[in-house]
Amino acid sequence: MDLEQQVDAGLPEGWRPSEGDKVIGQVIEVIPGWSNFKNGYYPIVVIKDELSDEFVSVHGFHYSLEDQLNRLKPEPGERIGIKCGALVPTKDGQRKVQTYTVRVEGRTDSNNTWSMMQGPRQQNLPLNNPPMPQQNVEQQASIPSRDDDIPF
Predict the structure, then answer these.
(1) What pTM was estimated for this model as a whole?
(2) Could you report the per-residue pLDDT of 16-64, keeping only the tens digit for each?
(3) Which residues make Cβ contacts (< 8 Å) with residue 106, sequence separation at least 6?
(4) How many folded domains does the chain comprise?
(5) Nearest to 64 by CA among 109, 17, 107
(6) Domain span at residue 22?
(7) 30 and 45 in contact (C-beta within 8 Å)?
């Protein structure tokens, strides 16, 4: 597809998986999507799906999928596999969350899986966590420490 066709076509149809559905293929692009509900950006990965031979947009809107995409940072040209898992109850039992498995081909297992050492919800993509402006030494000295308001 040439550039004019890509512009005319816009973003490919969004992937709407059920438990067990997979998309496997080459990453075409990763772009930011905006959500008023989340009040922020989330990653959208456009993939040329080998299983359907179609282009598909995978919206990293659900927490589990967003977290894995933010950590792995798939790049155009890489081969990615995403599987929709089960809906699982939260610890408090008040709701259920959608689970996903994401793998990028050629990455070592330690780069493909979540590590307890990394802690929860790493905000790696600049679209979710824009860099804070640098402050000079005088500005830094005038900022009160968060420890000042600890009540003990």
Answers:
(1) 0.67
(2) 999 999 999 999 999 998 888 877 899 999 999 998 999 999 999 898 9
(3) 78, 79
(4) 1
(5) 17
(6) 3-149
(7) yes
